Amino acid sequence: MATLDTLKRTLLQKASETEVPSNQPLSDEQYSHAFDIFLKGAGWKTYQEFIIPQLSQLLDPLFHSRLRISILEVGPGPKSVLEHLPDSQKRKITKYAAFEPNKLFASRLEEWFRCTPFPSLEHTPEISRSRFSSGDFYHRTKSSLYDEKFDVIIFCHSMYGMKDKQATIQRAVNMLVQQPGGGLVVVFHRDSLRIQGMASYRTGFFPTGLVSVADSEDTLDCFAQFITGKKTQDGTLRALWRNKCRELGACDTANPGSLLFSAPDVMVAFTRHAPTGSEYSAPAMREQKMVKNRQACVRFPAITLQPTGIAGVQHCVTSALKGGTGLTVVGGGHSGHCLWFNIRSVDMGLFNKVHVVASEDIKVGSFIVAEAGCKTVDIIRKASEAGLTVPLGARPSVGAGLWLQGGIGHLSRLHGLACDSIVGAVVVSADAGKLFSVGYVPEQYRCPEAVQLDDSDLLWAIQGAGTNFGIVTSVTFKAYPAPAYTVRSWRLPFDDLFKARAKLREFDHLIARDLPRTCSADAYLFWDEDRLHIAVTMFETSTATSCVTLIALTRAYKILGPEKSIKTTDSIGVFDAEMYMSEMHGGHGGGKTSSFKRCLFLKDIGQDETANVLIKAIETRPTPLCYLHLLQGGGAIRDVPADATAFGCRDWDFACVITGVWPRDQDGTKEAVAAVRWVYDIAEILLPLSTGAYGADLGPDPRDAALAAKAFGPNLPRLARLKQRWDPRDILAYACPLPTPPKDPRLIILVTGESGAGKDFCADVWRSLFMKDDVAACVSSISEATKRQYATETGADLSRLLEDRAYKEQHREALTAFFQTQVKKRPRLPEEHFLRLVHSAKDAEVLLITGMRDKAPVAAFSHLVPDSRLVEVRVEASEEVRSARRGADKADIKPEDKNGTLDYAPSFNLRNDGEGELLARAFFSTHLQHLVDPDLQSLTEIIRQIPDFPNTDINFRHILGVAQSRGGLKLCTALLQSHYSGDWSQILSIVCVETGGFIFASALAVNVDVPLALIREKGKLPPPVVSVAKEVSHISGASSGKKAGVIRKGGKVVVVDDVLATGNTLCAVLRLLVKVGVEMTDISVIVVAEFPLHKGRELLCREGFGKVNVQSLLAFGGF
Ligand SMILES: Cc1cc2nc3c(=O)[nH]c(=O)nc-3n(C[C@H](O)[C@H](O)[C@H](O)COP(=O)(O)OP(=O)(O)OC[C@H]3O[C@@H](n4cnc5c(N)ncnc54)[C@H](O)[C@@H]3O)c2cc1C
């Protein structure tokens, strides 16, 4: 089955050969008939599986941020594609307009609107029966719609006939609203879309789109004319076109009598901020960059930039961040993802230097510093000149993508993967375009502007997943002495497939497994001269053949017979010794071929099930040139623990590269489409038999998703979090896909208190009570990590430290001292321990953490988990009870264990002197159960997010909007009332600050019947007032007059506000209250939403207000 683009090219070629005029436009009826073909059967799947979900997902944030949405659809056809959006989105559409030049469609569209598909429309949809056009034409067909502004403009299937696509899109972009968050122009098109210069905000790809066409004369005539956009009455040309359709189409087995064509689709979305190219300091390439990978070549990027220095790379990143667009990077250009539809690409070609830092001293070692535009051969050549080498891949022209994502080659069994030799790197970070140096980079190559980062995470991530976190400008490799290679090859033909399977098993079990790590044996399965072949190449790297090698060789001769060739060569010559270059199919290198690869990691390839799949794969190859390459693993690859580097997949015997190959002149034909499909089909069958997938070739193609889920072994969750940390705007979205990180628990309860107070006991009771309410909860002890390390270093018994109370008591003091020493060395250790616990809480909604000893932990840690609500429950008990529980004498309890020394207020206190669960259970019902109240979620959903307001990069949460939504204020007030942990009847007044506080406090005051104490800007309240200075102004509140003062000494007050962010306002309010004589312990604060990233609680503690109890209903990450 050929692609529609190949079909179009072929049909037009035929038309030009016959010289028959064919340039009239199709009639409205013909167009309508052809349009139907795309919406039926296989064609509808593109809508179902791609267009509708993509649209809905893309529009969701925009729809969520607005109360009313206006839509312009260009060429919608007989009805709007928006019909299929979820009801919640359709309800937001208040204005709809369309350009629909096909009169038949326009009438049907008007008819369709009579059934009110969008219930909130405020006007009759305006449907212009003219073409949407750019520039000059617009002046001639002026429609008033051009003067209007829209939130969303959609080209779902109308771009095909448009001549100047860029100008058309640009006009549409100019018609977008200019309010914060902007609007979107969304274009769906076949993957041949080429809109030069404009960078897309988001891109989606649907490579598996199909179109099924009935194989009848009328339908094929109509279809061929639609595809070419040319009408012809000429019978000969029509017949020629029909025949070509039959030749290029495949039989639609699901729909007999129809022909199937491949119709990959793309979505590109543009915003007003999209950069056009003129703003770059890096030189832009005028011509499309030709890269090695043929698929990448036809994914037309918006622009290719070729930075000449690091500042240029930084500029590419910062302008992508500013414009909200993405970037791809071109290294060696061998993957399909270095160029991507309407994404800007950064070509690292000018970063092409290799430096050798050689040392005779083995202890110091030698290093190779390679810039990111270097190819494998550049590095090997330069290293060889100094008698050194680096374990890279087998082909000379492959670039940085290889060593940043793994790198399997002939030296892997001896020295590990390429990424294992990376000891340092210089990186432009994707989060801010800053330059960092990580790990060891020789000083002279570090770049004076680079900040040395002592963050082992980034280096860890670069060692195997290095294309996802920034643009790497150079890496430092550990170098090894360059070996000489002896390369032996065997080639065995098979008529009997059973014998082939048996031979594969013998090769695996009797030859490969026993090889020393100085040798590696690769196998190739391919079909040649009408027979299946298994070929083997053995690469031996030692200078003198060892005894072990001799034994293995003798066995190889016995099993494989005499070798077909033997060659001794060096690090450069070994590139030519590759089997597929020299031996297979007469040498692939000689011919012009295109290929497509995916790679899975296998153990025991001789085992029946795996061997059968491998042999069957070759039997079912769609083109004669397809083959399987099995690269040997084990040795040094397996020595590295799976979690020591990001690469993760270590436990395999062979990396199986499934390689679909076809002659280059068959690109886009049914052979090429079938070869790619074959690769994915075989990968799907092998996936359950594999121990992992190689991330190097994986990208945003949806067919890669299942493979990407098996790449990186156990490291995916950590990588997902690092992606969020280092590329929060996802500008490198087109590299190997990483999952979104699992959500942190929505509620984290720190159960603190002195030993013997019953923390672990209470935490366990509460966990089971949450679980009983169907809320997934777990308990973790933060001291466990320290105990583990303590046990390793002192030889103490870990299980007894964890389980045996008496044993734990014996080690208590030593453990505390051990922890303190560790913290002295690594001051951020408590934060690291805390985050590790939170991140390992997998699917828990509530995490209870015990063993925390930090002061004011909510203030100190909440910014680390900004999307979670963090509360502290302090469990207390009398000294008698605690000493009894610890099995110690009261006199043994050290003074630091004494109660009552806290200088901050925990969220809750529990006096736990009693026996059994009674107290803990009662506490749960009063204070903890409602922290997971489903109404909190309802309140969250009411709060709109407005991106880029009031400034770019700010995702504004409209808390006051709660009062603007029906039922919002009532719900919020009820929650404020029930969540306050004190007794409303004891409250003298509710203190509030304008403006947000007034709204929520007023409604609450009505419910609880407590008077308000108003705080406003200085000068806005009549006397008597008191004032204090606030950060940039003064605020004033009611003074404590002896008579009718709203606030009095000795009275309890609750401060109610909409938001707690930096804490500046709250500090001023608290100062004001203290000034009028209110005791700090008589003040409580409750806010609707807290933004922990601003560290408001930390400021309160610093300013001496740590003893004030502060509660919040919701917590939001972001600013
Ligand atoms: C003919 C051939 C032979 C191969 N042989 C081997 C082999 O022997 N061993 C092996 O392990 N693999 C091999 N591969 C797979 C190869 O490692 C991957 O295809 C790799 O992604 C190619 O890297 P590249 O730089 O050449 O490609 P590119 O397409 O330029 O880059 C690949 C990816 O890396 C990203 N990237 C490139 N440079 C940077 C940078 N500086 N910073 C951040 N991201 C960057 C790109 O954006 C892209 O996502 C081979 C592939 C082919 C086609």
From TrEMBL:
PROSITE patterns, A to Z = FAD_PCMH
Q: Which GO terms describe its molecular function?
A: FAD binding; oxidoreductase activity; phosphomevalonate kinase activity
Its GO CC terms? cytoplasm
Gene Ontology biological process terms from the UniProt entry: cholesterol biosynthetic process
UniProt feature coiled coil, ranges: none
Question: What keywords is this UniProt entry annotated with?
Answer: FAD, Flavoprotein, Oxidoreductase
Establish whether keyword Chaperone is in the entry. no
Q: Name one Pfam family in it.
A: Pribosyltran
**FAD-binding PCMH-type domain: from which residue to which, for each copy?**
295-482
* Matches recorded under PANTHER family: BINDING OXIDOREDUCTASE, PUTATIVE (AFU_ORTHOLOGUE AFUA_1G17690)-RELATED (PTHR42973), PHOSPHOMEVALONATE KINASE (PTHR42973:SF25)
Which family does the entry's similarity section mention? Belongs to the oxygen-dependent FAD-linked oxidoreductase family.
- Protein name per its UniProtKB record: FAD-binding PCMH-type domain-containing protein
Which organism encodes this protein?
Triangularia verruculosa
